Amino acid sequence: MMRFFRSAFVIARRDFTATVLSKTFIFFLLAPLFPLLFGGTFGSISARIASQSAKPVIAVVSSQQDFDRLSDARDELAQALGQDSAPKIIHYAPEANAAAQVKKLLASSDPPIRAVLTGGLDRPHLTGPIATDGNTTGQLRLLISNARVSAASEPSLPVTSVQASSGSLSNDRAVTAQIAQTILFVLTILLSGMLLSQLIEEKSNKIIEVIAAAVPIDAMFVGKLFAMLAASVTGLVVWISAGALLVQMIKHGGVATLPPPAIGWTGFLALTIIYFAMNYLLLGAAFLTIGAQASTAREVQTMSMPVTFGQMLLLLLASTAIGAPDSTEGIIAAIFPLSSPLTMLARAAESPQSWPHVVAILWQALWVGLILRMGSQLFRKTVLKSGPRTKWWKFGRA
């Protein structure tokens, strides 16, 4: 047993040193910046396109006086609901041929007009491809009704601002849980893939056969897995520290102004590292076992694709616990070992209880031991089979 742990430690130290002290580890630390950068850029572009396409443009054919009153009513609605929630209105002076003017406006592409409002405030009539009881029609009815009424004094509404309430904290903690689950899932998939590529490289260079001649195969399996886990935890600590420093620099009040998770920031960050380790060991053992079955990178991609899709289903299962950690779906997701780390991390953001995490960590550790045991046995049987495979019809001759 001591030889096993000593050999696993030697392999882990070798792989950890080769990974962390290499020049490429800097690019490894910068890797999460690229999806965040692309995600933020495309997200802002998509939001801008969605807001532009969602806000309808209404052509108002009326006198200038009626349009001014309608525009004032529209500004009041936009002030209450937001600029993107109120329809955009453009004024056009009435022409002699009203029907031809409406047809021309509906065919205009600069700007693209959704509907045309004619008749002023006395006899309004809306023409366009919109529903009678739709959202735009209802907003225009409200605007016309407010524009017809003489302007009244704005009612006084004193406001006392507080830092947080139960409703705002619940919503913020649900958002924190969802973000934490997504980041944990993406990092685990990314780092498990690195473990696969490293194994395939050593198999193709016959290095793994030299190592297998000196140490037990099981120790090699455990050592490689924990080496990449240690390197990943190192990267995770760097990313958390960099994120906290960035928030401290750009946000007024710094990290102290962020809505705290239910279990507190210290406990939440500690559980994030623990659940990341559990999730990585569970998924990394599966990926390492898959890598032992394959001889080329193409075979790895083919075999790991179903595992990746299965992990996405586990993420969907874990996301059902957000907002309802004590529901039937949340309890099932917490008990199922492969989705338990993601589910319990979300629970840490929404529930202040600590004892469920103790039980969950012990439960996950049990399954980590079982999966490591099964994975190491398969790894031992297949890791040295790096040559061409024997065809099934030649087994009898062999």
List the helices and strands and how they pair.
Blueprint lengths: L1 H19 L3 H7 L2 H22 L2 E5 L2 H18 L6 E5 L5 H9 L8 E4 L6 E3 L7 H14 L17 H39 L2 H6 L4 H34 L14 H29 L3 H23 L8 H8 L4 H11 L4 H28 L16
Parallel strand pairs: 1-2, 1-3
Antiparallel strand pairs: 3-4
Helix pairs in contact: 1-9, 4-6, 7-10, 7-11, 7-13, 9-10, 9-14, 10-11, 10-13, 10-14, 11-12, 11-13, 12-13, 13-14
Mean pLDDT: 75
What count of structural domains?
2
| Helical residue percent band | 55-70%
Quaternary: single chain
What best-fitting shape do the alpha-carbon axes yield?
elongated
List segments where confidence is low: pLDDT < 50 over at least 5 consecutive residues. Answer: 386-396
With strands numbered from the N-terminus, the spatial order across the biggest sheet is 2-1-3-4
Describe the overall structure.
The protein is mainly alpha-helical and 398 residues long. It has two domains: 56-148, D-Maltodextrin-Binding Protein, domain 2 (3-Layer(aba) Sandwich); 168-387, no CATH class. 67% of the residues lie in helices and 4% in strands. It contains 14 helices and four strands. It has helices at residues 2-20, 24-30, 33-54, 64-81, 98-106, 135-148, 166-204, 207-212, 217-250, 265-293, 297-319, 328-335, 340-350, 355-382; strands at residues 57-61, 88-92, 115-118, 125-127. It has a four-stranded mixed beta sheet with strand order 2-1-3-4, with helices on both faces. It is elongated and about 95 Å long. The protein starts with a helix and ends in a 16-residue tail after the last helix.
